[in-house]
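Hi support team,

I submitted a single chain yesterday and got back a structure, but I'm not sure I'm reading the token output correctly. Could someone confirm the output below corresponds to the sequence I sent? I've pasted both exactly as they appear in my results page.

Thanks,
R.
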Amino acid sequence: MIPGPVFVYSCPTCGNVITRGSLMSGNNFGSKIFSDGKSISPMLPEFPKLTKCKKCNSLFWLSNLKPIGTFYWSEIKNIEWVFADKAQFLEIDDYFNAIDKGIAKNKKEELYIRQQIWWGYNDNLRSGKKLFKDESDEQRWAENISKLKPLFDQSDSNQRIMLAEINRNLGDFETCIGIIESIDDEELNWVKEIIIDECKKKNKWLIELKDKTSPRGNLLK
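Hi R., thanks for writing in. Yes, this is the structure output for that exact sequence:
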């Protein structure tokens, strides 16, 4: 893994300095891929597009801001940037707040936020916690994934797999299998087989995907 430059931003509300890293190159060694399409790769980290200022709590898209500067850690000269807040992925409640505030201005941005909410709930399972806090939390989860379904681009095989996965989460195994079987991509056959098998077992919840036919383990991205 080779880090790229660190981008420096100014909060559009209060001017607080925030930094976000980048990557010049990486690899999928040690990666884990899950049935919701999220991958966790120690050597291929991701960086947030939407974040929250720790000083004023405003939400904003880093991807829509022009950096005020960049630096490499090996040659940084601005001491203020060294101690600046680092951009973080949001918590589930923050993403819901972003939806309520109308932060998403188009379908692509809404897809990003609602997918992060879906993944945020599944992160509970990934870390060995309960999926929901209570019944109202489960209702909020169900409402989000129902609104996420029509946002996927079905011409994209990976997004169709995520659409199938949501139907599996909702217990609609027949629809899930129908979507999976309609995907014509030999590289994804191993994923299709696993998900169909889980549907036959009536399992609704997140699973880690492992390709037993590949020593490297193909990744769904």
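A quick pointer for reading it: The first helix runs from residue 79 to 82. Let us know if anything else looks off.

Best,
Support desk
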